[in-house]
Amino acid sequence: MNWQELQHASLDRLVGWAETQPWCRAMAECAQDAQWHAEGDVWTHTQLVLRQLEELEAWPTIGSHDRTVLKFTALFHDVAKPLTTRLDELTGRITSPKHAVKGEHVARAVLRELGCDVMTRETICRLVRYHGRPVFLTERDDPQHEVVRLSWMVNNRLLYWFALADSRGRDTDSMSRPEENLDLWQLVAEEVNCFDQPYPFVSDHARFTFLRATEPNLYYVPHEQFRCRVTLMAGLPGSGKDTWIQHHREEWPVVSLDDLRQEMEIDPTENQGAVAQAAQERCREWLRAGTSFVFNATNTMRQTRGRWLDLFASYDAHVEIIYLEPDFREILRQNRARTQRVPEGVIRRLADRCEPPTWWECHRLQYVAS
Prior knowledge:
Layout lengths: L2 H4 L4 H8 L3 H7 L13 H14 L8 H13 L4 H4 L1 E2 L6 E2 L3 H16 L3 H13 L12 H9 L4 H13 L10 H13 L12 H9 L15 E7 L6 H8 L5 E3 H8 L8 H17 L3 E4 L5 H13 L2 E8 L3 H9 L7 H10 L10 E5 L2
Parallel strand pairs: 3-5, 3-6, 4-5, 6-7
Antiparallel strand pairs: 1-2
Helix pairs in contact: 4-5, 4-10, 5-8, 5-10, 7-8, 10-11, 14-15
C-alpha cells in the first residue's frame, strides 16, 4: 500500500498493513515494564492507543487530515522501543531511553518511502518526538515556557488529544500520570493563547530570541537592528539548492562548501576541516561588512546546522532557512545529472539521518517541496 491508500484506510486495514512490516513485528516482540504497561508488548499498547483515538469525545469533530496525523502518530510513537529497550540489572526494570527521539527518525524514513508529503510527514514526526512531554508538565520549572516552546514544533491541541489516547491505551493499576496532568497542559496552553496556534510573539526576532535564550523572558521585546540577512540553504544533494539560489538570490554573494572543495581540490571523502575553516572565514568577511549572503551546504543535521546559525546570530544577522525536499526519486535523478554527482549510497545515508529545520532555529523558515 502507498500513502494515498493508507491515509484513507480503515483502522483495521491500517493495522493489518502495519503487521506486515518489519518494524511492527519488532514491536510485537518487544516487552515493556509491567508497572506502566501491564497490557504487554509494544504493539499491543500501540493498537490500544489507536482504538482509544476513536473513543475520544472530540473524535467526531476532528478533520480528516488531523485524524490521519493522529493515527500515524499512534502507529509510530513507540516504534523505536525495540531499538532502545534494555533491562536494568540492578532494579530489574525495563526502560527505553530516548525512544521518542529515535522514533522520529524511523517514522520519517517509513513515511518518506511511502510517499507522504513533507509537511504532513514532519507534523507526524514532531508529534512522535514530543508525544511524552505533556505528562511531565508539572516537573518543568516554568510550564508556560514549555507549552510556548512546543507550540512552535507541534499543535498543542493535537498533542493533547494524542496524550489522552496514549494514557488510556494501557492496562495498569499503578498509573502515576493522571489525566489531570494532561488537562493542565490544555489549561496552560489556553492561558497563553497557544493551544490551537503557535504562541503569538510580537515579532520573529522576539520568538528567535526567546527560543535561543538560556533564561528566556516570554515578554521581552528585543531591539531589531540586523546588520545583514543570511539565507542558509538546506537539503540533500540533488534537491535543487543551486537552482533556487539562481532564481531567488541571484544578486547575493554565495559561500558554498562545494565550490570551496573545488577551489581547494579537496575530495568530499577527505577530511573537511580545512573546507569548514575557509567557509567560516568567508562568512565572517560578509558578516563584518554587513553584507547579506547565502550559505550553501547540505545542512541536513540539526547539530551541524546549529554551528553555522550560532555564527550568523552572533553577528546580529537576520537568519532565514530554505529547506528543499522534492520527491526522493527526483533528488536521485537530479544528482545523476550533476557535474559533481554524489554516490547514491551517500545520499541515502544522509536521508536516513536528515533532520529538517524548524522554527526554533531561525527568523524565517520556508519548505520547498518541488
